[in-house]
From TrEMBL:
<dbReference type="InterPro" id="IPR021555">
    <property type="entry name" value="DUF3000"/>
</dbReference>
<dbReference type="Pfam" id="PF11452">
    <property type="entry name" value="DUF3000"/>
</dbReference>
<protein>
    <submittedName>
        <fullName>DUF3000 family protein</fullName>
    </submittedName>
</protein>
Length: 216
């Protein structure tokens, strides 16, 4: 991770690690060592300094190319996870650490907005159970999109019933924003690499659900 990911963007490269707590450096190493999931793209992203003293940011992407759904689906799944660290524990976090994450993705097939939101949140909590996330909280927003012209459908999927070629492609999607405190055992550091891996797994599973045209 670069010095931007530590939230100290003003540091010169030679000094970037000089004042970084050992806990944060170990967290960075755990992210570097984590196993990557096939089909998921990873990239480093900066963490805004206003969020915490230090931070580790990872952007995620899952390309999709599902025929008949238009560019709304082919644009894929995108998201990120930021692991934040404050020198003084925050009361709301009950820890020095907090994870914040986001994913934007299409939804497979037609769905009732309320049921879709519940389905997405259930999938989020199931993904976070693997890392024993503490106090997860967040929102799920269901989005509706219609593509026209070059972004219209081919009449095979994603359009209204009976629509022919060139009809607008209508798709549902979701945006999920969630934060949680990573679990720690006594004086041990949280496994930050495991937090990133769990969120990447959620993005990957969302892509699998679209490919299979099934629920999350």
């Amino acid at each position: 991770m670069t010095q931007e990911s530590y939230g100290r963007t003003e540091a010169a490269p030679a000094q970037a690690h000089a004042d970084v707590p050992d806990e944060v450096l170990r967290a960075v190493e755990s992210v570097r060592r984590m196993m990557h999931i096939d089909g998921v793209q990873y990239r480093e992203i900066p963490v805004p300094r206003r969020l915490a003293d230090y931070g580790i940011g990872v952007g995620l992407g899952v390309p999709l190319d599902e025929p008949g759904y238009g560019d709304a689906i082919r644009s894929g799944i995108s998201g990120w996870i930021m692991t934040l660290y404050d020198l003084e524990p925050r009361k709301a976090w009950r820890s020095h650490w907090r994870c914040a994450a986001f994913v934007c993705a299409p939804l497979p097939g037609p769905a009732h907005d309320a049921l879709a939101a519940d389905m997405v949140w259930d999938a989020v909590t199931q993904s976070l159970e693997s890392v024993e996330a503490v106090d997860p909280a967040g929102t799920v927003t269901i989005t509706r999109n219609a593509g026209y012209g070059a972004l219209a459908g081919d009449g095979t999927a994603g359009t209204s019933a009976g629509a022919g070629p060139g009809a607008p492609v209508r798709t549902l999607g979701f945006e999920v924003r969630v934060s949680w405190t990573p679990a720690t055992m006594g004086d041990r550091d949280p496994d930050v690499g495991a937090q990133v891996a769990a969120w990447a797994r959620f993005a990957h599973d969302a892509a699998e659900a679209i490919h299979d045209d099934s629920g999350l």
